[in-house]
Amino acid sequence: MISRLFKSSGFISPRISLSKNLTSRFLSRNFENRASLSSLVFIEHKDKKIDNATLSTITAAKQLGGEVSAIVAGSDASEVATAVSKLNGVDKVYVANNAVFDNNHAEAISPLLLAVQKQINSTHVLASHSSVGKRVIPRLAAKLDVQQISDITGIQNESTFTRPIYAGNANETVESTDSIKLITVRNTAFTPAENKDSASSIEDVNSPDVQVKSKWIKEEVSKGDRPDLSSAKIVVSGGRAVKSAEGFKLIQDLADKLGAGVGASRAAVDAGYCDNSLQVGQTGKIIAPELYIAVGISGAIQHLAGMKDSKVIVSINKDPDAPIFQISDYSLVGDLFQILPELTQKA
Ligand SMILES: Cc1cc2nc3c(=O)[nH]c(=O)nc-3n(C[C@H](O)[C@H](O)[C@H](O)COP(=O)(O)OP(=O)(O)OC[C@H]3O[C@@H](n4cnc5c(N)ncnc54)[C@H](O)[C@@H]3O)c2cc1C
C-alpha cells in the first residue's frame, strides 16, 4: 500500500522537510531494517550492451543500501553478466541463460524475477522506467499483490520515495508499507553506475517454466548518423515555429555542426516537420543532456517534463515572455530564421 505524505506544487519543487516525528520514525525503521534490506535489479541489455537507463537503476539500488543483486536474462546473458559484475554497486549477479528471455517478453521476464526474488528474498525489485520496466513490474506487482512505485526520482529511505506527478509540475513523496517494494526508476534522476576495479560473483539460476503467448516478429529501428536523442550530450530541439520540414533542416544543420542529437516539440511532430521518435516531453522522450537548445519552443509544461533536468538550457524565441525562458540558463530573444544560420556558421 502506498500513502502519499505530501505533495508540493510549483515546477521546481521547494525543499520540504519531514516533520521531526516523521523523520525519526523513518530513520528508526530504516535503521532496524537495514540489515535485511536487499535489492534485485533487472538488467536490460541489447546486442550484448547494458542499457544506459539500467546503469542509473543500479545507482538507485545502491542508494537504498543493503546488498544489490542483478539478474541478467537471455541467450547473451553470460557475456552481459561479466560486464554487470564489474559495475560499481553490484554485489552479486544472477544469470538465466535462456533464449526464452530474449526480446524482453514480459510474460517470460516477470516469472523469472518472481522466482529470483523468492529465492534470494529481496525486499526491493528495481527496473528502469522504460517500456520494458513498465511492462514487467506491473505483472510482478500483481503476482506479489503489492503496489508498484513508478518513476521514482529520489529516495528518502527504504520505504519513501519522490516521484513527479502532473507532467512534472509537482513532486510527491510516497511511503510504501508493502513488505516488498517494486520500483521503476527515472534514469535522468540518477547518475549511471561506473566500473569498479574488482568483479562480483556470478551465479546461474534455473529458468522457471514460462508460457509466452506472444511471438517476436521483427524490430524496425530508424538509424541515422546523429547521436541517439536519449543518450546525446547535446540536443538541439525545434518547435512549431520552424514552420515546415524545410525549416526543421535548420535545427538539423546546427545539430550536425555541434555533433548533437535532434529533438522536437509535439507541435513540430504533429505538423509533420520531423519523425515522432524525436518528440521530447511527457508523451515523448525524457532526457537530461549536458546542453539542451530549444528553438522556437514556447515551454509548455508537457514539453518541459521531458527536458527540464538538462544541465544547461539555451532557448531561442522571438517572444521575450515565452515561458521557456523561465527555466533557461541562456535566453536569446530573436527570430530563429536569422539566429540559427548565424549560429551554425559560427559553431
Ligand atoms: C496530454 C498531452 C501531452 C503532451 N505531450 C507533449 C510532449 O510530450 N511534448 C511536447 O513538446 N508537447 C506535448 N504536448 C503539447 C504541448 O502542450 C504544447 O502544445 C507543445 O509543446 C507546443 O509546442 P511548441 O512549443 O513547438 O509550439 P508553440 O506553443 O506554438 O510555441 C511556438 C513558440 O515559437 C515562438 N516563435 C514563433 N516564431 C518564431 C521565430 N520565427 N523565431 C523564434 N521563435 C518563434 C513563439 O513565440 C512560441 O513561443 C502535450 C499536450 C497534451 C495535452
TrEMBL record:
GO terms for biological process: fatty acid beta-oxidation using acyl-CoA dehydrogenase. CDD domains: ETF_alpha (cd01715). The keyword Transport applies. Pfam families: ETF, ETF_alpha. Its cofactor is FAD. Keywords: Electron transport, FAD, Flavoprotein, Mitochondrion, Transport. One of its GO terms (molecular function) is flavin adenine dinucleotide binding. Its main location: mitochondrion. It is found in: Mitochondrion matrix. InterPro entries: DHS-like_NAD/FAD-binding_dom (IPR029035), ETF_a/b_N (IPR014730), ETF_a/FixB (IPR001308), ETF_alpha_N (IPR033947), ETF_asu_C (IPR014731), Rossmann-like_a/b/a_fold (IPR014729). SMART domains: ETF. Residues 39-220 form the Electron transfer flavoprotein alpha/beta-subunit N-terminal domain. GO terms for cellular component: mitochondrial matrix. FAD binds at residues 240, 265-266, 279-283, 296-303, 317. The keyword Flavoprotein applies. Binds 1 FAD per dimer. Belongs to the ETF alpha-subunit/FixB family. PANTHER family: ELECTRON TRANSFER FLAVOPROTEIN ALPHA, ELECTRON TRANSFER FLAVOPROTEIN SUBUNIT ALPHA, MITOCHONDRIAL. Heterodimer of an alpha and a beta subunit. The electron transfer flavoprotein serves as a specific electron acceptor for several dehydrogenases, including five acyl-CoA dehydrogenases, glutaryl-CoA and sarcosine dehydrogenase. It transfers the electrons to the main mitochondrial respiratory chain via ETF-ubiquinone oxidoreductase (ETF dehydrogenase). This is Probable electron transfer flavoprotein subunit alpha.
